[in-house]
Amino acid sequence: MSFTIHGIGVSGGIAIGRAHLLTHTQLEVEHYDIAEADIEQEKERFDHAIGTARSELAALVEHIPENAPPEFEGFLNLHLMILGDSTLSEVPKTLIETQRCNAEWALTQQAEELLAQFDRMEDAYLRERKADVVQVVERVLKALMGQPRAIPAPRHPEEDSILVAHDLSPADVILFKQHRYASFITDLGGVTSHTAILARSLGIPSIVALHHARQLIHENELLIVDGTHGVVIVNPDANVLAEFHLRQEQWQLELEKLKRLRSTRAATLDGTRIELHANIELPEDVEQARGNSAAGIGLFRSEFLFLNRREIPSEDEQFEAYRKVAMEMAPLPVTVRTLDLGADKNWNGASERSPNPALGLRAIRLCLAEPRMFHAQLRAILRASHYGKIKILVPMLSTAHELNQTLHLLDEARHSLDQDGIPYDREIPVGGMIEVPAAALSLPTFTRRLDFLSIGTNDLIQYTLAIDRTDDSVAHLYDPLHPAVLQLVAHVIRSGQKAGRPVAVCGEMAGDVRLTRILLGFGLRQFSMHPAHLLSVKQQILRTDLEEVTQLANKMLKSDDPERLLALLERMNA
Ligand code: PEP
Ligand code: MG
What we know:
Mean pLDDT: 90
Strand content: 5-15%
Structural class: alpha/beta
Radius of gyration: 25 Å
Oligomer: single chain
Number of strands: 16
Bound molecules: phosphoenolpyruvate, magnesium ion
């Protein structure tokens, strides 16, 4: 039966391929058939893994460290209880028998069933225990598989597979950079969550906030993903399939045409130069940035070096990563953002999840609370500055005190390098991200002491409109055209420049061609976005009459009527 599911498109284009379902657990498992004669042996293998997991947990209970938090023992006992429950320790054996499948597959199928029940629970405490079930299942899977494979293995070649997940963390998505899936779609997630941002950087069509896709779609079903319109068509008929093959070709043609703009200078019709920079997550992304003629790296999200690992990368390892990017981009500038961990980007070693992560110990707040970790990063960035043109960008500043502390720690890092006789760029520019309304509204605090500003519209919108960017239930409220957002963005661009400080926008607004002209009209001359968007934004700039859009942008700032704002935007983009 054919049906459609609607979500929020986060990366445009059309993909056609077979569904590959991702389980809740971090570990991907294979699915294979078991011969009738091997069923008993497979069930024994399962029992053995349950036994191993039980012994591991029992050993942990026996050796609880003295300084462990008091709830640690309760937590281990809860895991033992979950493990002992027949839904996990017995039912998978029935599945092995009835479905003649391998133990790993039987366990994950049963776990999915159980986790779906948790999702439906009213009681928030019980709902939260879902994470414990996932951890127990992972423990048993590890026992079954020996070393976990971090890489999902679809039945079809990756290029023909569409990954269907309930949720993906930014750390998961970064793993997909090594793969060639045709697309991925998720039940959860907001438009500017880091998961969605990474989806864009992969340049494959993707959709978030589909709510029940993971439940409705079966392994191996044929899917069409229309990332531009946020629609998934499951089991399309032949006519629909033919129509979408055609649209897919047209999309490819458009992309090919855009490539001709690679060597064109970015300027508006009157010749005003606009700088188009790239956002990157890992040093490997430089290739895509260069391939799309970025004028520099406007945002290197350095925290991605810290994901998918237990240990914090050492100063030397970080230095090598920053130096590589600086050298590959030289003489063009590279803006390294200091760690923005916390919120939806937790590194494995993080202790407790805060009750409200977006408002918790995140970004510069976390760095100031962990001065040793910050010191190592600052030294690494400074050392790399000797090999190219590096700028330092500090995320999520909101108070003068944070700025003072940051600059003080930077001085300390400089001083320690001087003592070690290690060279670095003494004129290294230091900038701040304006992504908290408090910072936008107290701009002189930041323009006085910083060399440049970069507006992080993803967070600025999140904090202005009070919508969690990772929460799909409020994703529809994300609105870059909200009058308050427009006022703040225009204010920062204009006041920052008046104070003689260059201002860039590096949030997703910068890469949205629908909004390019508003930003130009507000006076923005430097954009930073995912490399995949550079050429379409350049195309928009090349066709822009700056005087006209400035007048229209001024009119937008005088209006708080959503319909009029939309009408003005349409006129601007006509
Ligand atoms: C932003 O908030 O707009 C931004 C660019 O930073 P990040 O998306 O990494 O939070
Ligand atoms: Mg941000």
